[in-house]
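Q: Study each token:
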Amino acid sequence: MRPLVVGNCSQIVTMQGPQRARVGPEMSEIGLIHDAAMVVRDGKVEAVGPRDEIEWLAPSDAEYHDAGGRLVTPGLVDAHTHLVFGGDRLDDFEARSQGKTYAEIATAGGGIWRTVAATRPLSTEDLASQAAKHFDLLRRHGTTVAESKTGYALDRDGELRSLRALQTLRPRVVPTLLAAHAYPKDQDPQAYLDMVCDELVPLAARAGLARDVDIFVEEGYFSHEDAERLAMAARAHGLGLRMHVDQLADSGGAGLAARLGARTADHLEHTGADGIAALAEAGVTPVLLPGSVWGLGLSRYPLGREMVDAGLPVVLATDFNPGSSPVPSLLFCMALACRLMRMTPAECLTAVTVNAAATLGLETSHGALMPGMAADFVVWEAEDYRELAFWPDVARPANNPIVANESCPSEP
């Protein structure tokens, strides 16, 4: 395969900041290079830097792609999505527009339960088709790698079908077992948790169907004690722990995630100073989901600025799902974070590239454009990286190319 030179780039964001490599006048905290070019060989970045240097050193047999003065960034990484589901939640959306709350809609049979009813009858093939369609929505907005959870079957066989459906999207999609999304209405809660911990977790681990487990800790869903039990089961079988916490109220979920050594604590809309301090001390990564706040018509966003200032490697993700966050665009989430969470454009781009990749075990291959890493990049209809958060519906991936490397070189 001939080497590829991507030249005439207004900017290339390498995410190769001062802590990673050399510091020069053309570099910044996000590794920003103006008037840049990149050489790709065998699906990996071979060289990146100022255009006059790179194009002069490029192999004579290289294929040349003129970026047309556009911006190039690493492919975006979405570290919290729900791609496997059937049906829709348009009735819930209409109810919310009439003032119904999340809890009221769930009590009336909507919310998760509506999606469970539409998902359980689907075959593995049907679920895989739905997941692929949903992942394609993310790709259109510049996401090249994503995490996806199960959690809309809430029974043994349905959760396994969902995990197997996600296997068809690997290695672009990293699967997470979220059987502890809600207690099914048709089963005793204790018996269900027994099944999840004693059957599903070992099966998923043994078959390599998931990297992590997840749990929704909230009043009316799963308790702190439930989370402790699931964490023990996951640890016993070599799976990591991700957690939905403090979304609807501050229930001490951030502190719980810290105590259990979770890989990530997600949502955190109601997490305060004590929870932030606990996450920082324990080294738990916060995954913030501003799209779900917007999707539910709420106004309390996570304390993104405070988390960044506390030294936490903040991640932004879409929480793409059929109900609370019908949002496939990480750029839209960046726009919300800049305007409503006081994060800078550079911090937001870091949150959807290197920080997100690290939570999926892909820090050595994805989320940055450095020699030896995957040539997984996006050419944008933009000239400046700040446009991504400023013009979230205008700064789209250019048609040619979107991604130079169609396969990930390493599994998470």
Observations:
- Confidence is low (pLDDT under 50) at residues 18-27, 400-404, 406-412.
